[in-house]
Design brief:
Distance between the termini of chain B: 56 Å
Strand order of the largest sheet of chain A: 3-4-7-6-5-12
Shape of chain A: elongated
Radius of gyration of chain A: 37 Å
Largest sheet of chain B: 7 strands, mixed
Helix content of chain B: 40-55%
Oligomer: heterodimer
Family (chain B): Belongs to the RRP7 family.
Protein name (chain B): Ribosomal RNA processing 7 homolog A
Strand content of chain B: 5-15%
GO molecular function (chain B): RNA binding
Pfam families (chain B): RRP7
GO cellular component, one term (chain B): CURI complex
Distance between the termini of chain A: 90 Å
């Protein structure tokens, strides 16, 4: 009771104290803010105590609460705001645009009139300006004359306020006066031609004006019927924005129901030029929905603008939401080209969601984006179209739209399908992107902002396999083969757009379960100068198709069809043609089936290619030669095997199987003084990531000598170096026991005794040739060498302990203990974890091998070690956002290069969530620890579940300078490789990215190729049990080790570990500054005496001589580039 | 380099500040370039070691990696009989290396440039070495004394790395025998010390400081820390949390402070990102 009172008294006094504190706090706070404004370098925030515990105002509390509840963290909200600032137009830019628009409008109003002529008569046009139209067929009726436009208005994103950088487009609608047109002009392309003539007339007039910078023709979303004129301002502003001039009919000039998707507006007779018997009967003519919508689209832009401005005036965040969605679309390359999901559609979609009350007017831009993506992910517009129309009765029904178009989104008038040109595949891609985005948005461990809005997703890095149709002319014959004449007429002869949906659905059927998604590039809007003719349909870059594979099914060589007697069999046979055959299976069923060629994994990966080329040839008349398949071009560099091409999966599997067998045998051994508690692999070959997995080979005995006691082979002088046989490390943990000594030397000796004993037992029971050493036991099994290390789990602890002078037992971490832990704990763990990853993602190993091959070839093998590289690749599979996990080695390799070159290593830790052990809180913890101690951490920081704070794998290397170089070379390689893969005209080999630039180095040591071991091999299987071959003898690495030990503080040494025949040497600039003579710093230096001072400088001549002496027999020549440094 | 050569007349010893004399050394007689060895008589103030007698020991700097102890011994025997040679990575005092280890158990020596302590039998040899003319080089590899480098050396190393398992077992056995013996001796000594602390006939106990390990309490840093932590925990358990209103209010205050801190952190991070222009999407 008494006690309680005591406290009661205390409470008021304390709060009182607090109030007193308040006043000075405010002053202090404003001061710190001023100081913090100019800071650039990040260091952990230190708020003073009083700052943190200041009583909050209501406003601040709201702000904090909002940030807390709406977003993962307030960071994302701020990031979005910053991003919007980046893409928004500046006031200065707006002024420039407005003044230029005024000039153009003024000019347009003064277009001179011309006399009325026949449409086909182009004599009024000067020869310097061409008509932006492909006149096929040539003849057309009607009269045309130039008059000043009835009105000039701004339309589209600029007046709406949703215009964003870069490539600022301002749309200007020029209304063609009614007297130029005729209500019947809708038929037979008469109106589009008149419009093109009108544009040409405008261009001719504007060309004479000095207020216009440059002038180009283009067409709207790749639709050749809708040419536009692109104007840029003169002078230095010419690249800052583009004015796009559209010519439009007067509003309401044509009746909208003429453009019903089932009406015909192009007569077959006129189009083909043939007199058919039924001509004149409109009812039998095929409908022309695409043509109709392209004309109708011209009629409505003003109405759309009105509609959108009405919506946007209701919702304050409308413009920002649209801007974010546009950025999102642009990063996914969906924003432009034929059949794109452009900014206009984005605004319309948000408007639809607002008017249908799926999102409310009071939401923020962030919420608009999120809800729109959610809607896209969950709604399939290819099946259930949506409409903005208010009274659906007087307009065509959605079903009628679905019959005519693949994707349906009807505009407010109810007559126009705004997604008329979009293919179902593009919409599926959009849907896929939206659902993937939603997934990682909800994942607190992913940097949502960055992967959502900041990472570009070009097709080459998104799709697992890519193929290109190089000769688009071939699609003309496809149209013929697929019998698409009326569709061709509808598309006004654009055979590319006509054939595309049919080819896509054909491939979709053929690839079926093998793929997740089929995408295609959107052909960009062509631009051409006003002085040249409109380019032909074939004159566009090749069509690229991307495929996202299903990893389990993509590589199966068998396509099993329906039973032979089922009605579906005919369909199956029709699809596959002669490749389909009757087969009997083990379960007794007799079915139609197609068997593709493919024995090794690398061949099987290309089964989709066989399917694609076969189907295109069979159904679309596209020869194999015009299909360029970019699925496995990079794989060549890790290809081995002469009879059966293979990228190493099979060989790795053999190694793993042999190891499993050995481990089982070790477990079963009896007669050891202590039992074995664990057998773990600790070598890249045991996780499928060794660049060149061991291969069998024949040994030539004349190349070897014999060792005297054990009759093992040893290399012979004067002969080429034997093939390198890599020992595969296996860690064998022994049971802990009181019998183990507590002394480092004694433990080492006991371990040796275990090696000897293990060797004896393996020899006795399984007749393996063994070679015990103090550090390990080599076992020669199945043509492979396993190097068994016995480990005792307390040994690192013993190494750390020491007794200090006062007799106190102190535990101090040291390098020796760390190295031992690395070898016996971390490496085996990493190996088994990554082995598991390979089971989930079949191409993990191949990506690792490509990545390491590249690192080796670029001489970075010692800086980004094998383990680091494997971890980096693992992160691509575990945290693929914004992509999906790589489904082919090539795309994985490209993303590896992208990761290296674009990740912000300075300010971010790379978290590799192995086995999914890290929760969101761990991520923040890692991040906070990282920022707090950034300076003392490795430059390349990788955190794993077992290692959150230290980044043990990258502690030693790379250094800042090396990382910089890696980043630079990776960016360069990526650019080169992507160009090479996407450009069909490239003749150069992709291996060019594997050639390092050597001009940066000071000395090149060329090696004698005969002494450089070829690849990494295993011995011949039949010799197992015989003499031990030469193991782990690599003159190059021995030489490198000697060089580094002797001259490590003077120079850096680089070499490709995969058979490189050159060692590159780079002097350290610091080592060449003369330093005062000191007994501890005279290695390889000579003394220069100047007066009283004695300084030392490196004795370069003698060092070069030493390079020769130490590498005697290995060196071919020494190339010193003396111009780089002064002696 | 060049001026220092000119300053001294040829066939004169070249002396540089610090009392060092420069000797040149080349790998073979046809080598183009020479390394410079710097030699001086061994001089230390504090320590006197029988291994490095002051008047007879020559301190040699900058010995190239391909010169083993044997090679150095022969190189310097032209100045007089050499008693012993010690090569080390860094200059420093002589250290005893514990129990004798066989070749296979020794840690691998670093193969860089080393310093050497050459002990002559006569002190006159020191003078002879120091007055050696600097333009007459010492030659490492001669016909009588070939030094293997490069591929030859690596093949030799590989061949020598083989060891007969029986012999290896012997080495292990003999080491462990020695180890056990040392352990036993240690245990014996401790037992004796413990005995000394027992009561004698008259009931007196002799209290001595005793060496490590004799006491019941583990005498280690970790144990000390553990005890400290235990105390802390005990103290903490006694405290009451969220019991009084002011405590409750404090937790709320902490929460707001947390939010504030996060907000400030994010703001700073943004400032940094903005400085690095990280918001340009393309």
């Amino acid at each position: 009771m008494l006690c309680c009172c005591c406290y009661c008294q205390m409470i008021p006094s304390e709060s009182h104290e607090e109030e007193e504190n308040e006043a000075p706090v405010k002053a202090k706070r404003s001061k710190t803010e001023d100081a913090g404004g100019e800071e650039v370098v990040y260091h952990p925030v230190k708020l003073s105590r009083s700052d943190l515990y200041r009583p909050p105002t209501a406003e601040e509390l709201n702000q904090l609460k909002e940030a807390e509840s709406l977003f993962h963290c307030s960071l994302l909200k701020m990031q979005m705001e910053e991003l919007l600032k980046e893409v928004a137009l500046s006031e200065r830019r707006k002024q420039q645009i407005d003044s230029f628009i005024q000039t153009v409008t003024k000019l347009l109003r003064t277009v001179p009139e011309s006399p009325e002529v026949e449409v086909s008569d182009l004599s009024w046009l000067s020869s310097a300006v061409k008509v932006p139209f492909l006149l096929v067929p040539k003849t057309t009726k009607g009269k045309f004359h130039m008059t000043p436009p009835a009105s000039v208005d701004l339309i589209g994103s600029y007046p709406l306020g949703t215009c964003t950088k870069p490539r600022v487009m301002v749309d200007l609608a020029v209304t063609i006066p009614a007297d130029v047109l005729h209500p019947k002009d809708v038929v037979n392309q008469r109106y589009p031609r008149k419009r093109a003539l009108y544009l040409a007339g405008l261009a001719q007039y504007l060309a004479s004006s000095s207020d216009i910078g440059s002038m180009l023709y283009s067409c709207l979303h790749g639709n050749r019927l809708r040419p536009v004129l692109l104007l840029t301002p003169p002078g230095k502003d010419s690249s800052s924005f583009i004015v796009r001039v559209h010519a439009c009919p007067p509003p309401g000039f044509f009746k909208p129901n003429r453009f019903h998707p089932q009406r015909n507006n192009i007569r077959t007779e006129w189009y083909t030029g043939l007199q058919t018997s039924q001509s004149g009967k409109i009812s039998s003519e095929p409908p022309t929905p695409h043509y109709n919508s392209s004309v109708l689209g011209d009629l409505l832009p003003r109405a759309h603008l009105q509609f959108l401005s009405a919506v946007s005036s209701q919702c304050s965040a409308f413009a920002d939401g649209v801007a974010l969605l546009k950025v999102w679309l642009r990063q996914r390359e969906l924003h432009q080209g034929a059949g794109c999901f452009n900014g206009f559609l984005a605004s319309m979609l948000i408007a639809y969601l607002l008017t249908s009350h799926r999102i409310s007017n009071s939401m923020t831009a962030y919420q608009l984006l999120r809800n729109t993506l959610n809607f896209l992910a969950s709604t399939d517009l290819t099946v259930n179209g949506i409409s903005l129309a208010k009274d659906p009765d007087s307009t065509p029904s959605l079903a009628e739209f679905h019959d005519a178009f693949q994707v349906v989104f009807v505009d407010p008038s109810g007559h126009l399908n705004m997604c008329a040109d979009m293919t179902a595949c593009t919409y599926k891609q959009l849907q896929h992107e939206a659902s993937v985005s939603m997934q990682f948005w909800d994942n607190p461990t992913v940097d949502g902002f960055h992967s959502l809005l900041m990472t570009p997703k070009p097709m080459i890095r998104t799709s697992d396999h890519i193929f290109q149709l190089c000769e688009l002319v071939k699609l003309q014959s496809s149209c013929k083969k697929l019998n698409l004449l009326s569709e061709l007429m509808d598309h006004s002869g654009n055979y590319v757009h006509t054939a595309l949906p049919y080819i896509l659905s054909l491939l979709q059927r053929g690839l079926g379960q093998r793929i997740h998604l089929l995408t295609h590039s959107l052909s960009p809007d062509p631009e051409w100068s006003v002085e040249s003719e409109a380019p032909k349909h074939k004159a566009q870059p090749p069509l690229s198709f991307g495929v996202l594979l299903m990893p389990e099914l993509a590589a199966s060589a068998l396509e099993r069809g329906p039973p032979a007697d089922s009605p579906k069999a005919a369909e199956f046979r029709q699809l596959w043609g002669s490749r389909s055959e009757l087969r009997r299976f083990q379960d007794g069923a007799i079915t139609e089936a197609v068997l593709w060629d493919g024995e090794s994994m690398c061949q099987k990966r290309l089964v989709p290619r066989q399917i694609i080329t076969h189907l295109l040839q069979l159904h679309a008349d596209i020869p194999e030669s015009s299909v360029r398949y970019v699925g496995a071009m990079v794989d060549d560099v890790i290809k081995t095997g002469s009879e059966l091409p293979s990228t190493g999966e099979e060989e790795s599997l053999l190694v793993v199987q042999s190891y499993d067998d050995l481990s089982r045998k070790l477990w079963r051994l009896e007669g050891l003084p202590l039992s074995i508690t664990a057998v773990q692999g600790a070598h890249p070959a045991l996780r499928y990531t060794q660049v060149f997995p061991p291969l069998p080979l024949k040994l030539d005995y004349s190349f070897f000598d014999r060792e005297k006691t054990s009759r093992s082979l040893v290399p012979k002088e004067g002969k080429p170096c034997p093939a390198y046989i890599t020992p595969i490390t296996v860690i064998c943990h022994m049971e802990g026991s009181g019998k183990w000594p507590h002394d480092r030397l004694a433990i080492r000796h006991i371990r040796t005794a275990f090696h000897i004993r293990l060797g004896e037992l393996l020899k006795k029971h399984h007749n393996y040739t063994c070679r015990p050493c103090p550090t390990h036991l080599d076992v020669w099994k199945d043509g492979l060498v396993f190097r068994i290390h016995v480990a005792y789990h307390r040994e690192p602890q013993v190494l750390r302990e020491s007794v200090n002078a006062e007799g106190l037992l102190v535990v101090r971490d040291n390098e020796e203990a760390q190295a031992l832990e690395m070898a016996t704990i971390h490496k085996p763990l990493l190996t088994s974890t990554l082995h598991g990853l390979q089971q989930q993602h079949p191409c993990f190993g191949a990506v690792c091998r490509l990545a390491k091959r590249w690192l080796g070839a670029q001489l970075f093998g010692d800086d980004i070690t094998e383990d680091t590289a494997d971890l980096l690749v693992a992160s691509l599979f575990l945290q693929p956002a914004p992509f999906t996990p790589p489904g082919s080695p090539q795309v994985g390799f490209l993303r590896f290069l992208h990761l290296l070159s674009s990740f912000d290593w300075r300010n971010n830790p790379l978290v590799v969530n192995l086995n999914n052990q890290l929760a969101a809180t761990d991520y923040t913890e890692i991040k906070n620890d990282f920022t707090a101690t950034r300076e003392s951490l490795p430059v390349l920081f990788i955190a794993t579940p077992k290692d959150k704070k230290q980044s043990i794998w990258t502690k030693r290397a790379p250094s800042v300078q090396m990382l910089q170089r890696v980043v630079m070379v990776a960016a360069e390689s990526l650019k080169l490789l992507e160009n090479q893969l996407m450009d069909s005209n490239q003749i150069q080999d992709v291996r060019v990215v594997m050639r390092p630039p050597l001009d940066a180095y000071d000395v090149l040591i060329h090696l004698n190729p005969k002494q450089v071991p070829r690849g990494i091999m295993a011995g011949n299987v039949t010799q197992s049990g015989g003499a031990l071959p030469v193991i782990n003898y690599n003159p190059v690495s021995l030489y490198m080790a000697e060089l580094r030990e002797a001259f490590g503080d003077l120079a850096l040494f680089f070499c490709d570990p995969h058979g490189g025949t050159v060692i590159a040497v780079l002097w350290k600039p610091k080592a060449f500054i003369p330093v005062p003579f000191k007994t501890s710093q005279v290695s390889a230096r000579s003394v220069v005496v100047t007066g009283e001072e004695a300084n030392t400088v490196p004795n370069v001549e003698a060092i070069l001589e030493d390079f020769r002496i130490m590498g005697k027999g290995l060196i071919k020549s020494l190339e010193a580039r003396t111009e780089k440094w002064s002696l | 380099m060049a001026p220092s050569k000119k300053k001294h007349a040829s066939s004169q010893p070249c002396i540089i500040p610090g009392g060092f004399t420069e000797l040149s050394l080349q790998f073979s007689s046809d080598s183009a370039a020479q390394h410079k060895l710097y030699v001086k008589e061994h001089k230390v103030r504090a320590q006197k070691s029988s291994h490095r007698p002051l008047d007879r020991t020559l301190f040699v700097l900058n010995i190239p990696p391909y010169c083993s102890e044997g090679v150095v011994k022969e190189l310097f025997s032209q100045f007089g009989c050499v008693q012993s040679v010690e090569l080390r990575d860094h200059p420093g005092s002589f250290q005893d290396s514990g129990p004798k280890l066989s070749r296979f158990f020794k840690p691998v020596a670093k193969q860089g440039f080393r310093v050497g302590y050459v002990v002559f039998e006569n002190s006159s040899s020191l003078k002879a070495a120091k007055s050696h003319p600097h333009d007459v080089s010492l030659v490492v590899c001669t016909e009588q004394r070939p030094v293997k480098t490069g591929v030859q050396k690596w093949i030799q190393q590989y061949t020598e790395s083989f060891i007969n398992p029986d012999k290896l077992q012997q080495i292990v056995d003999s080491f462990m025998e020695g180890y056990d013996k040392r352990k036993e001796e240690e245990a014996e000594r401790q037992r004796k010390e413990a005995e000394q602390q027992q009561e004698d006939e008259e009931g007196w106990v002799k209290v001595t400081r005793g060496s490590k390990g004799t006491k019941g309490r583990p005498h280690s840093e970790a144990a000390n820390e553990r005890t400290l932590q235990k105390e802390m925990r005990k103290k903490k358990r006694k405290e009451l949390l969220n019991f009084y209103t002011w405590q409750h209010r404090n937790t709320q205050k902490e929460h707001i402070a947390d939010l504030r801190k996060k907000f400030e952190e994010d703001k700073q991070r943004i400032a940094l990102l903005r400085a690095q222009r990280k918001f340009k999407p393309y």
